[in-house]
């Protein structure tokens, strides 16, 4: 059975009104250009315990289609630092291709201590019209601006809508433009076009409303080879 892929996700969120148009980001910093936009329709089902104990510590588990030719992809996101649920997020992202159904054991293993024996069930379904704008530095991919128009579904009925922008670093920028310099320049250009402060929480939290913001249980760390000893011990004890 293949091991899930683990990435570090670095993203910044903004909100946008229905008629917002992505501005031209070329020249936001020296060497910055953009490529053609990519349009997708994504269908995501989120899983959690019935009392949302994963979401309440900033963890999300989903199955999503619309990103490629596979039968879909499972993704587990775990905060990489204490502010992992704010407008600037750093999260460990574990992914694995697979069809819809029960969440794979390989993605449940890191969060067993948070679930504490609870069985994950489907708690929300979101359909997203996504427009991705690749950002290049000296011709090399460095970031993406994602414009998401999200519909919250109850069966086949749309019960809520919202729009969200994300700026995500996809590779270390070249040409002497540091990660914070690139993200700051892109965010400034988006704000001048009318993008606003982000709404709190993840897409899932916004979809579920007030019950997603119940005070959390203590978060359980996800250890890496370079983690401190206390983080590694905590992760080992919780597995």
What report would you give on this structure?
The chain is of the alpha+beta class. The chain has five helices and nine strands, in the order ββββββααβββααα. The protein has an eight-stranded antiparallel β-barrel with strand order 1-6-5-4-3-7-8-9. Strand 5 (73-79) and strand 6 (88-97) form a beta hairpin. The longest helix is centred in the last third of the chain and has 14 residues, at 179-192. The protein is globular. The model has no long low-confidence stretch (mean pLDDT 86).
Describe the protein's topology.
Elements: E1 5-15, E2 32-34, E3 38-48, E4 60-65, E5 73-79, E6 88-97, H1 105-108, H2 112-115, E7 121-137, E8 140-154, E9 157-169, H3 179-192, H4 203-208, H5 229-238
Antiparallel strand pairs: 1-6, 1-9, 2-7, 3-4, 3-7, 4-5, 5-6, 7-8, 8-9
List the keywords:
5 helices; 9 strands; 239 residues; alpha+beta
């Amino acid at each position: 059975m293949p091991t899930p892929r683990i990435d570090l996700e670095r993203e910044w969120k903004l909100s946008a009104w229905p008629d917002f148009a992505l501005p031209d980001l070329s020249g936001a910093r020296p060497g910055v250009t953009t490529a053609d936009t990519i349009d997708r329709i994504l269908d995501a089902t989120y899983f959690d315990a019935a009392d949302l104990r994963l979401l309440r510590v900033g963890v999300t588990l989903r199955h999503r289609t619309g990103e490629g030719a596979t039968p879909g992809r499972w993704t587990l996101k775990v905060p990489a630092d204490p502010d992992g649920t704010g407008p600037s997020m750093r999260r460990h992202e574990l992914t694995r291709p697979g069809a819809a159904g029960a969440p794979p054991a390989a993605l449940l293993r890191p969060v067993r201590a948070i679930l504490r024996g609870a069985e994950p069930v489907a708690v929300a379904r979101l359909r997203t019209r996504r427009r991705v704008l690749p950002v290049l530095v000296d011709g090399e991919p460095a970031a993406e601006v994602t414009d998401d128009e999200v519909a919250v579904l109850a069966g086949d009925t749309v019960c809520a809508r919202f729009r969200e922008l994300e700026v995500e670093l996809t590779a270390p920028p070249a040409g002497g433009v540091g990660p914070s310099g690139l993200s700051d320049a892109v965010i400034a250009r988006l704000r001048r076009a009318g993008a606003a402060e982000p709404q709190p929480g993840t897409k899932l939290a916004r979809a579920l409303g007030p019950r997603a913001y119940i005070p959390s249980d203590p978060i359980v760390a996800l250890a890496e080879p370079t983690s401190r000893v206390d983080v590694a011990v905590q992760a080992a004890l919780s597995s």
